[in-house]
Amino acid sequence: MLSMAFPDEFLTMIWAGAAIKYGHVDKGLAQFQIAPPELIEGLKKPAALNFWTLETLVNEYLTTPTRLNSQRVHVLNCKDLNNLGGLHNRIMELENADDSIFLSQNHVLSGMARIAQRQFSWQRDNWNRTSLFRSTMLFHFPEAEEHFRAKHGISMGDFSRVGLLAYSHLKAYPAIALNVDAKPVGLSDETRDAAFTILSETVLSARKEATSMRAAHPYVAYKPSRLREKPCLISKDGRRIFAPIPELVMERYTRGLYYDLVDGGGRLNDKLGKNFENYCVTLLRGSLERITVHPETIYKKGQQRTPDIRLMCGEEVRVVIECKAKKAPFLAKFGEMDAVLKSAGLDELANGVMQIWRYFADARCGDIQDAGPTHENALGMVLTLDSWADMSREMREEIMRRARVRAAEKLPHAIDEDFRAVLIKYVDDLEIVLDTCTDDSFLSALDKGAADDLADWHLSSLHDQVPGRSAVEKPFPFQAEWPEVMSWWEDWLRDIRPKFAKPGSRDS
Q1: Are residues 346 and 291 both part of a single domain?
Q2: How many domains does the chain have?
Q3: Which candidate, 313, 301, 414, 314, places its Cα nearest to that of 355?
Q4: Are residues 290 and 428 in the same domain?
Q5: Does 70 score more than 60 pLDDT?
Q6: Which residues span the domain enclosing 148?
Q7: Rounded to two decimals, what is the model's pTM?
Q8: E runs forming strands in 259-393
Q9: Cβ(116)–Cβ(391) under 8 Å?
Q10: C-alpha distances out from residue 7 to 22, 87, 234, 411, 506, Å
């Protein structure tokens, strides 16, 4: 079926499926000429269409050789809703068959970890104000700006502005004109063209890249997605770009900026790591009330640093946090478990665990002057920017094994009480908890996660099981920092608002 679909029509069909999934049923159905009522009702059900399956469908389409001919014989009718449902179901059947093969050779928990990596980001509200703020605070810094501009001929701020405009349009329509006039909102044709070059490519280029990047991976559900780097595809006539899944456009100009900086070397990586630490400090300070948040300090005459963050209840250290901004390689998330457990990237997380144990040992020995007493229930947390060990017992156990090996070599003064429980959690998960927690419910969720049988649960799932959640909506944690960090946004709004606001109104 995939080999018999014309690109523009196929991409429009996928966009319509995503619109239905978003709840924009009328917009989605407007793209179909054949839509049986019973099928419409079925597709409205929460489990009927999956974003991750739609993304896989596009990638499988790109890697399937076309069999179309000039007579348009046996062309897939992408205006028929039955064909969308049929393709979606066929992909799911193929995925289920792959899973059966995988589970015959691996533990069921290994399969659960891969499912979590693939699906949970779609099930969370990742495309929001916090995501926009985080990506700006992490990636928009002078060295990165210089690297980005040299690479693309456009500033990060302008790329984000064009990306936001394109995303807003593509949520409502399947395509946007490549020559759309953005000058009314202060963006030149040259800026627009440079941004669209980052966001899009021809179908021919996408076919070549997708085929190359997916060839070495055996399971259809767990292959790299070309849409993560190029979420838009140029139409056959070269006049429009399609975004089959619009949320991936926003993904590209937020956390997807990683693709533009990954080749920038250690200087950019070090700065990114520091920015992530600062982000986590700001997030925690803006979300907790009585718990105080303390960044790293130097001790032993500058020879050692404390972990990145310490959370204190009164005078006592309650939680010690080490932040890790390194991105997980694809195989660490979706590869066979043997390959996952050999990933060199786990060394950095293991080192983070050891650094937390070193802190507890040095604090007990009195080597850290401003440490304060350690709470009897104190624990550690390695907080990651990427979803390294999301629901993966095997990966967590390998990280802890490597940490113990390092500790045996480098922490000869440590005793049993210093080897406290260390959670390995993903910052997206932490943000969800901090949005609704009280100080007490937050600590209760962490304490639950310290138990070995619950260590692989999402922190948000643990938090759902504890009492004392906030009874009122909590304020946005970055309200004070927003104007400075988001200057590319605020300055833009200030410039364009007078052109669109009605006289005497406060329309934004």
Answers
A1: yes
A2: 3
A3: 414
A4: yes
A5: no
A6: 129-200+226-262
A7: 0.92
A8: 292-295, 298-299, 304-305, 309-313, 316-324, 374-384
A9: yes
A10: 22, 15, 9, 59, 43
CB 234 within 8 A of CB 207: no
Residue 169 sits in the same domain as residue 293: no
Report residue 311 as tokens.
């959370």
Q: What percent of the chain has pLDDT over 90?
A: 74
Distance, in Å, from the CA atom of 357 to the CA atom of 307, rounded to the nearest integer, reads 10
The answer to whether the CB of 68 falls within 8 A of the CB of 75 is: yes
| Chain segment 133-183, per-residue pLDDT in tens | 999 999 999 999 999 999 999 999 999 999 999 999 999 999 999 999 999
In a domain, 247, yes or no: yes
Place of tokens 């140029």: 234
Domain limit, last residue, from 123, 151, 181: 123
Spatial CA neighbour of 460 closest among 393, 391, 396, 378: 391
Whether 151 and 103 map to the same domain: the answer is no
Rounded Cα distance, 382 and 400, in Å? 11
Element (H, E) at 92: helix 81-103
- 284's enclosing H/E stretch is helix 266-287
Residue 484 to residue 497: CA distance in whole angstroms: 19
The answer to whether residues 98 and 143 belong to one domain is no
Question: Which residues sit opposite 299 in a β-bridge?
Answer: 304
Residues 61 and 153 in one domain: no
Please give the backbone phi and psi of residue 32, each rounded to the nearest 5 degrees, phi first.
-115, 145
